[in-house]
Each structure stands twice: as C-alpha cells, then as structure tokens.
Design brief:
It is globular and about 85 Å long. The chain is an alpha+beta fold. β20 and β21 form a beta hairpin. It is built from 24 helices and 21 strands. Helices cover 50% and strands 10% of the residues. Among the domains are: 156 residues, Glutaredoxin, CATH 3.40.30.10; 65 residues, no CATH class; 78 residues, Glutaredoxin, CATH 3.40.30. The strands form seven sheets. The chain has a five-stranded mixed sheet with strand order 1-3-2-4-5, sandwiched between helices.
Amino acid sequence: MANRLASSTSPYLLQHATNPVDWWPWCEEAFAEAARRRVPVLLSIGYAACHWCHVMAHESFENPDIAAVMNANFVNIKVDREERPDVDAVYMEATQAITGQGGWPMTCFLTPTGEPFHCGTYFPPSPRHGMPGFPELLIAVREAWAKRGDAVRDAARRIAKQLAERAMPLAESTVDDQVLTTAVEKLAAEFDYQHSGFGGAPKFPPSMLMEFLLRHHERTGSNRALSMAQRTCEAMARGGMYDQLAGGFARYCVDAAWVVPHFEKMLYDNALLLRAYTHLARLTGSASARRVAEQTATFLLDGLGTAEGGFAASLDADTAGVEGATYVWTPEQLIEVLGSDDGQWAAELLVVTKTGTFEHGASVLQLPAEPEDVERWERVRTALLAARAARPQPGRDDKVVTEWNGMAITTLAEAGGVFGHPEWISAAAAAAELMLGTHMVNGRLRRSSRGGVVGQAVGVLADHAWLIEGLLALHQVTGEDRWLQAALPILELAQKHFGDPDHSGAWFDTAGDAEALFRRPTNPTDNATPAGASALAAALVTASALTGAESYRAAAEAAVARAGAVLAKAPQATGHWLTTAEALAHGPVQIAVIGAAGDPARAALEVAARAAAPGGAVVLAGEPGAEAPMLAGRDLVEGAPAAYVCHGFVCDRPVTTVEDLQAQLRSS
C-alpha cells in the first residue's frame, strides 16, 4: 500500500500517513482510480488541531478491520481543510444542505466525478447516541452503490445542480448609515447582557464585530456600540478562553459564560483579536486591553513563530490525547508549585476550586479582577508558567498559511505602530518576506508552506486579500515604498482572476484558472475568518486611500453593495463587511505626516496620529517630496513638520502641533 501522504506539507495529512487506510491526497489521479475501479470516493476532511478529528482517527482510521472495509470499497481521500479551503467550502455546503449541520471531521461520499451523494461529520466506531456506527455506514453506502448505483448518481447530480443554483450572487443593495445603525440595533437585541458576547453555548470570540462596533462608535458616538465591545472584550479576557499565564486565546468556549474553552489556539483568532484589543486600548486608554494586546502579540511571536519567519497555523486542543491537559490545575497542584500561602492565594484569584470548573476536578484559570498585589501576581504567574512548561505540550500545526499570516502581518504592524514595539513590526516584515519569497511561485500565490517548502495548493481569494492588507500595513508603519510596490501587483492579480465577470462586485473564492470543483466556491458571509470578498473589499479601501486610485474605491463600494442585503439582516455573519463599510462611511480617514526623518516634531505628530486615528484610518509619514501618492504635493508648513487629515475627498487644514492634530481627529 503506497504511503501517498508521507511527502505532504500538511501536518494533518502526516498524522494519517501511517494509517492502515490507503489514503490518497486530493488529486485527479484519485478520482481516476475511483472511475477505474467503479467505486465511490470517501472524502475525509479535518485539520490538525481538531479534537474530534483525532478521536475518529483513533477509533476508525487506525482500526485495521475498518480500514480494510474502506480500502476494499472506496478510494479514500484525506484533505486538510486549512490547506484546501476551496474543497472544504463546497463539501461543507453539501454537508449542511444534506444534514442541516456541519463541522469537522467531515465525511462525504462522492461519485468518481466529485459530486456528493451522502455526507456527515463524526461517526463513532459503533452505533451511539442515535448515530450509526462508521462500519455500518460504510456497508450501507457500498450496498446502495452496488444495487442502486444509477439512482445514487442521479441524486448526486441533483444535489450538485441545486447547490450551484443557490450560489448566484446577491442583488446589489445600498449600504448607508441607516443600514449600519440597524446592524448595531440588531446586535444589541442579540447581545448576552449577563455574560457578554452574542448567543449561548458554544460561544465564539466575535473579533470582527468588536472592530465594527468600535469603528461605529468612533464615527457616530454610539455609546451602545462601545459598551457592547468593551463588555465583550473584558469578559473574554477575564475568562478561561484567554490564557492567563502566557497570553493568547483558545478557539471558543463550550459554555455561555466564557469559562471552559475548546483549547486549540488558532493563528487567525489571535491575529484578529490582537487588532480588536489594540483598537480598544487606543480608543479608551484601557490598561487591561493593552495588557491583553501585548500578551497576545507575544504569544504570536513566541508560541506560533516559525524558524523561517512565518507563523504556524495552530496549537492542538489535545496533549497526548487528553484535551486541555497542559492548561488545567487543581488547588493541590498550585500549592505544590507555589507553596501553601501563594498556592491558596492563586487558587482564589484564578478560580481554581476543589470541585473544578473543567473535568476530573481540574479548573481552567480565570482572572475575574486585576490583582491588587501586582508584584505577587507576576511572581506567581512566572512560577506557574515555568511549571506548565515542564508538562507535556500540545502539538503544533507548523504549516504557514498565507491568509492567516497576512492577518498576523497586518495586526502586528498596526499594534507595533500604536504601542511602539518595533520588534513586532520587524516580525511582520519577516513574515511578509517569507510570503513574497516562498509563497509567490512563478508570479502566482500559493496557499501554504512548511519548513520553508511551499505546498502545491494555489492561493484562494482570502490569501491574496490578507497579504495585500498586510503589505499595505507595513508600508504605512515603516514608510517604505517597497511594501506598496509589492502589494499592488497582487491586488491586480486578485482583480484579474477572482472577480465575477458577469456580476459587478461579486467575487469567487478560487481563481478562474484554478482546479474546477463540482461548483466554483463563493461565500458572501464572514465566519471564523472574514469572507474572501470582504477581506478584499477592505484591502481595496486601504489601497484606494494610499494611492488615490478611484477604481479601487469603486470596486470596494461595489463589493459592499453586493453584500448589502445581509448586512442589516444578519450582522453576526457580516462583521468584516460591516467593518469595511464603516471605513468607507468614515472616508476612510487619511493622515499624512510630512517632515524630515529624525525630526522630533515629525515623530511626535506620527505617534499622535497612530494613537488617535480611528479604526480603518490610513496613516503615512514621509519626507517632503516623497513619491508615495498619499504624500505627493504636501509640504512643510512654515518650515515645520505638518499633518494633513482628509476624509475621502475632503481635507482639513494642515496642522503642526500634536494638540491641533488630536482636536481634528476628535472631531472626525
């Protein structure tokens, strides 16, 4: 049996390389083999940090008897959803349409032409809780294919046709101030006023909604928007989803009160939350928000940084097969590490109880209030972190995903500029160099790499969008024109290959010359990460402000209008769209600072601009005569460094003092 996964750049596929299942990677050859053998394809999709993916692997894919049934009756394909989001997207849509729900691991049965006819998620090795056992399911599918093959194939064609018809672009709709205000009202009606956040259990970090609410408050003065953002950020940072020792956020909480997390840590969550907490700290001066932002940035660098300069995809939920084992504590364990006095103090401070807040009497660390004795807390935190480091550690998915690295580049550059951390900006620049040097192959962008070796999967729309946004953020914070010059060709690539030629403002998630799936994926809504189209719209807004290119702004406005129908109706599913719409409504605000490099007055204006700029603002500093379009034609004022504030096409008078600049931005 060939080990076809052994050379993969995906740690998830490598986890399955030694299974007794005769796995194929996603490839044309696998479907050709299914056609030759006249058997269905069994498609299994998951990712390295997925707890239930590990469970199904141990129960079924490592079982020689179950593997024998799979090998005899199917061509088995294993896909890393993070490496192939296009494949994941179309079959997840099919799974949700067939079963009414989705998730990972995802299990789909396909015709040899790739059309789905039966889908599900996790299946146990024997019948349990109303779910069929996986072996019984395999046998049932085998018999249906053998006895009713024509009917199965007809059903698969109907499913594919119906899904393709549902994928038509939405009608264009005006997105104005009323739409944005209505979105805030709907969020207020859906807000959890007891625990903060939105919805019940499980509860996910609404990072994009936090950014939207903060931007809406800055533009309109809405205290309701600010309150929801503040309360949610505070609740998340105080609860178990936030790592109180090392910083960084887990994927979500299994309860409504932010106590017990699902322990996997994803790069995208932490990058997006770094942006939200940076924005909150900049807006309100919150010391707590700044602490969380700084610790989260440190986690990105120390916990997810790779030797090549990029950022790894995730940390696993499990440690040696036990979920959360690295992170949870009992009172006795605290006393063992800290001694009796500090141990009891820490147990009370961190809500570590005798009965436990998690499983088997252990507790997840929480920090309901800032410790009064800061020095004692730092001593305790340092000791607990050292003791935790000696425990077995969760696995790390160290593939480097372009999209998520683009998010990290963007938010590290922004936060580094706001808080004065040049090492964060340097880390963002190193990741950008990796993207441009390794992930760009023959002028086209690839999805991921591992250990400096680029993968075969081509970049999707979100990869292009977030790399553009990251490069533009580096251009702003460093003033280096090379980042702008690197971003604009990628923006042209995205416009050329991903736009829908028949519908203005509509975008596909895969390029026109990419591998054809049973339908071309396109998704107008934001999920755990922004939709590719909303991410590109945001990048277009930034590019338009930096270059003055009206075509970029027009393309962004058309994209927002195409998604407009769902913005007010379903704000929880359109957080990044709303964030982008707020930037358009605000101008976006552009702040150009002109002065000689090294002049303290210019430096003071630049620091003030980054500290006071509203979300979505574009800030760029340079010397008189600079070629950057945003700086062109602007000069010193009476020989002194000056700041120019504009909103879209309207500019205020240039100012030369920090006080005047702050006053202009307050009145924005």
